[in-house]
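[agent] plan:
  1. take the single chain provided in the ticket
  2. run structure prediction with default settings
  3. attach structure tokens to the ticket
  4. add a short note for the reviewer (M.T.)
[agent] executing step 1
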Amino acid sequence: MRYPIILGMVVLGVLLFLWERHRHAPTHVSDTAYDLLLSTLLSHSVPEVSVDQIQSGQYRVLDARTYREFEVSHIAGATWVGYDDFDLARLVGN
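[agent] step 2 finished; step 3 output follows
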């Protein structure tokens, strides 16, 4: 009988932890459930840039996926640098 109570307390503890973490995480989307999911996945340890900053030319977007993925879809103006065959020389041509 005590195991279901302990399990319930653990689940409640995890939910309270996630909720508290969510409350202090920056909000990026208007969907609360999606925002909660993002707050558990993203650490925000790397500075984030906005679309406006990228469009202003302040940053250069490098795409390190496979070339096939890059061909299917990529951010306009992004430079493909490769994944398994990453090569900084590709930056010189752009």
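[agent] step 4 note for reviewer: The two ends are 67 Å apart (CA to CA).
[agent] ticket updated
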